[in-house]
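Quick question, first post here. What does this chain look like in 3D?
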Amino acid sequence: MAVVNSNENSTNSTNSTNITVNPVANLTVVKTTEVVNASVGQLVNFTIVVTN
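> Answer (accepted):
Ran it through. Tokens below.
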């Protein structure tokens, strides 16, 4: 829940409004490597990119 406060004039009055925020995840995960066929014991580096 988010609370928004507003002080619109010099009398220092405050107005509050409650806003319900529904969390939404839209994640994409991509894992890539340049090695096509790795040998046993070979060091392989991966790149992992996560976007939202």
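The chain has a mean pLDDT of 80.
The radius of gyration is 25 Å.
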